[in-house]
Amino acid sequence: MWPKVTSALKVSWFLACLAALAWGIFGCEREVNTILRGECALLAGYVLALLNLPLSIVWWLLLSAASYAFYLAGIEIGESPAFGAVVWLGFVVVGYLQWFKLVPWLIAKWRSRRAARLQT
Questions:
Q1: In whole angstroms, what is the distance from residue 25 CA to residue 107 CA?
Q2: Could you state, in order of their start, the residue ranges of all structural domains in the chain?
């Protein structure tokens, strides 16, 4: 039963991430000016961050630092479609590693320690 539940969670989580991407690409393009498009894309980023909390905060901080470093170098990357793809892909990778690799590993570790403690 658990593998089916885990697979359903993975698919549901990935579909939610794809929906945020589609909203960021297609929904935000309908906005009338660049300020509203930027606000819409930021809101899509917030949705991705919520889907992948708490490690998404680390990814968001790395993105902010990289964006600031590029700004200091005189390179503007905010409107770049490639930057949007990197943002989305980073959130998905961080979220996948967090929810489907790290959390199960931590649960297994906790259960093995608990079983070892109960045996003694």
A1: 36
A2: 2-119
